[in-house]
Design brief:
Distance between the termini: 8 Å
Radius of gyration: 22 Å
Structural class: alpha/beta
Order of helices and strands: EHEEEHHEHEHEHEEHEHEHEHEHEHHH
């Protein structure tokens, strides 16, 4: 018998900032995509239906499961799911009782906040222990996350390091490095600190008044960033693009000379995993100017594929932007090195291969050959 039906659990159907999860639909299995909160409510756009079992069976199960869990349990049985991939730690926790009841192998993929944000960790710390004990494997996207999860009680033997890779479309970009244009792509959140990127850029404009910064994305700090730009008199230098399609971002990358992002640990402990936008920029042959935050130094090699500074070091980030503006040749060299490093170590194919092998191993251990 061939076991090849994988359930992917995700809080969101298709969040624009979660391209790494959408890429998992390319795994070489029959994929059933469940979404709608950490305890999924929907399968492939169809709301999960109540079970049709006998009243006796339902009464017995209701002593152990709530109504939403029963709907998920029914669906997993109906779809003959053989393995579960839970996107984010809380998703694994909220679905754990159902998955354990069915005896399904479980892969949990941690991405960032789920291993760092203080409220999330406080809420799930006990369930994390149970989750780590049951899970077949735990995927992490940064070296720092390895240490964080070990600290939360995850056995090191279960942890698999697998950085999410960029879509291959970004490998087709051919930037000219001719214009003093920087680009930032990401949600306007505290951990991405767009205000610090803007403050650094304001220092750049004093030396290079023609420099431009394009910021792509939305989020709770967008109004703050817009007010800061107005307050600093940068309205002619900074453009906010809002949400953009992949094809639009590709064009913006082609027009830019470098990618900038001043990631920091937020006030609530929230931190990045390894930002996929950083990998996309490198795949597009753009040098990355960023901070030594979370998984960024795993993928950006300072002085070789980009330039890094410490978190909150606004002057250091400004100096790094000025350094590239002063040397287009260095900009091109770092950008070409960045693409080569992505091709050598961080392709989407490599990420999917690691994940597929993890799923196959979990299935084999559970069901045998």
């Amino acid at each position: 018998m061939t076991f090849n039906t994988l359930a992917v659990f995700s809080p969101n159907q298709n969040a624009y900032s979660e391209t790494f999860i959408q890429a998992h639909k390319q795994l070489p299995f029959q994929i059933k995509y469940y979404y709608g909160d950490f305890l999924p409510t929907t399968l492939d756009e169809s709301i999960l239906q109540p079970p049709l079992w006998s009243q006796r069976v339902l009464n017995k199960l209701r002593n152990h499961f709530n109504a939403r869990e029963l709907r998920l349990l029914r669906s997993l049985r109906k779809e003959r799911i053989n393995c579960v991939l839970a996107e984010y730690g809380p998703t694994g926790c909220e679905t754990l009782r159902v998955v354990k009841h069915l005896g399904l192998p479980l892969i949990v993929h941690f991405h960032g906040f789920d291993a760092s944000e203080s409220q999330t960790i406080e809420r799930y710390k006990d369930l994390y222990i149970e989750l780590f004990e049951y899970a077949s494997a735990v995927i992490v996207v940064s070296r720092k996350m390895v240490a964080d999860l070990i600290g939360l009680g995850c056995p090191q033997a279960k942890i698999i390091y697998g950085v999410c890779g960029p879509d291959n479309q970004f490998l087709s970009v051919l930037p000219k490095y001719a214009q003093p244009f920087f680009i930032a792509v990401g949600r306007f959140t505290y951990k991405k600190a767009p205000h610090l990127t803007i403050l650094a850029f304001s220092r750049v404009v004093k030396q290079f008044p023609n420099a431009k910064l394009t910021m792509v994305g939305e989020g709770e700090l967008l109004p703050v960033a817009q007010e800061l730009v107005r307050g600093l008199g940068l309205h002619a230098n900074v453009e906010f693009k809002g949400m953009q399609t992949t094809s639009q971002i590709l064009r913006l990358f082609e027009q830019s000379m470098a990618f900038v992002q001043h990631s920091v640990v937020a006030y609530n402990g929230d931190a990045e995993g390894t930002p996929v936008a950083v990998l996309e920029a490198q795949a597009a042959s753009l040098p990355v100017i960023a901070t030594t935050h979370a998984g960024i130094p795993d993928v950006v090699e300072h002085g070789t594929t980009g330039l890094l500074c410490s978190e909150h070091d606004v002057t250091g980030m400004a100096d790094n932007m000025i350094r590239l503006l002063s040397s287009p040749a260095l900009c091109e060299k770092l950008g070409k090195n960045a693409r080569k490093r992505v091709l050598d170590q961080f392709t989407l194919e490599r990420h999917l291969f690691i994940l597929a092998q993890t799923v196959r191993t979990a299935i084999q251990k559970t069901y045998g050959n």
